Amino acid sequence: MAADTPVEYIKHHLTNLTYGKLPEGYERADGTVVQEATWTMARTGQEAADMGFMAIHVDTMGWSIAMGVLFLGLFRMVAKKATTDTPSGLQNFVEMTVEFIQNIVRDVFHGKNPIIAPLALTMFVWIFLMNSLKLIPVDYIPSVAHAMGLEYFKIVPTTDPNGTFGIAIGVFLLILFYSFKVKGPGGFAKELSFTPFNHWSLVPFNLVLELLALIIKPVSLALRLFGNMYAGEVVFILIALLPLWIQWTLNVPWAIFHILVVTLQAFIFTTLAVVYLSAAHEDH
Predict the structure, then answer these.
(1) What pTM did the predictor assign?
(2) I want to staple 218 with a disulfide (CB 3.0 to 4.6 A). Which of 11, 74, 168, 197 is the partner?
(3) Bridge partners of 41?
(4) pLDDT tens sequence across 55-79
(5) Residue 103 CB partners (closer than 8 Å, separation 6+)
(6) Hey, is 124 helix, strand or coil?
(7) Enclosing H/E stretch for 18
(8) What is the pLDDT of residue 284?
(9) Exactly one of 132, 162, 193, 220 is catalytic; which is it?
(10) Does residue 1 surpass a pLDDT of 60?
């Protein structure tokens, strides 16, 4: 995991472990030529880029799944051991989180759907856990991965737009599903056609505005989360480039501040998702 210059160090820490397909005749970084189309791990950032759309960021997928399993396992364990006598600190924390999400849904969501609260809880805790991986020092996990023969390895899924767009697109599909289910195809089309101006002559203008607003929802969700977490990751990497005695002076306050950012971004994403789903349930 050697990096000769600060620029190479930064690029290395911002490159995902990528698995994809290299075409026949492709010349790899070490000079070898791929004899036939092959699925393999990228050895350089350029190879990862050349693998195209079907390439998979293995680290993003792995850590996303791991945090999801951690969430499910943790909450299941607390639910099975829950007691009304003397609850543990973990049970109190879980109950506070559930109550916090219930209050958000109660205040923001105006429809009737038993799925929304569990969905909001899942999004909040899952995103919070993925964001929290940022608090692990930037060199620890990549160093372990390098010792295992993995050239690149990022551990924060929300610093990868593929990860944030995956969650946002899931929310977008739910928005479309409930818009059609609650309002019906005709009702949804009428809403798009006659909002904000309720006149037939302005239908084309309304459609452009409403369709654009609809598409912007998942884009804004994904990019807001990605942008904030990616910027924080860059700052941690820049601090790691400084002398050791300065690192602790800057890293600790930034990490403490980032605890707020980690929680706030999970809260914003969840709240906006619930707001969008609430609008999808409104049948005028």
Answers:
(1) 0.90
(2) 168
(3) 19
(4) 999 999 999 999 999 999 999 999 9
(5) none
(6) helix
(7) strand 18-22
(8) 59
(9) 220
(10) no
How far apart CA 8 and CA 237 sit, in angstroms, is 12
In whole angstroms, give the CA distance from residue 80 to residue 82. 6
Q: 187 pLDDT exceeds 90?
A: no
> What is the spatial distance between Cα 2 and Cα 8, in angstroms, rounded to a whole number?
9
Catalytic residue flag (residue 224): yes
* Half-sphere CA count of 230, side-chain side, radius 13 A: 16
pLDDT tens-digit series, residues 238-270: 888 888 778 878 888 888 888 899 999 999 999
| pLDDT of 223 above 90 | yes
Structural contact between residues 81 and 91, judged by C-beta atoms closer than 8 angstroms: yes
Other Cβ atoms closer than 10 A to 65: 11
Token pair belonging to 88: 């543990």
Residue 185: strand, helix, or coil: helix
Residue 88: what pLDDT? 83
Among the listed residues 131, 179, 206, 228, the single catalytic one is 228
Q: Which of 113, 132, 224, 278 is catalytic?
A: 224
Return the axis-axis angle of helices 116-132 and 244-280, rounded to nearest 10°: 170
Measure the N-to-C terminal CA separation of the chain; round to a whole number of Å.
58
Looking at the chain, how many residues does it have?
A: 284
Largest CA distance in the chain: 68
Tokens matching residue 156: 């924060």
The tokens for 151 are: 């050239």
**Can you say whether residue 57 is alpha, beta or left, with left for phi > 0 and alpha for psi between -120 and 50 degrees?**
beta
Residue 92 appears among annotated catalytic residues: no
Please report how many Cα atoms fall inside a 13 Å half-sphere around the Cα of residue 189, on the Cβ side: 4
43 catalytic per annotation = no
Spell out a b/e string for 242-277, using b for 16 or more CB atoms within 10 Å of the CB, else e: eeeeeeeeebeeebeebeebbeebbbebbbbbbebb
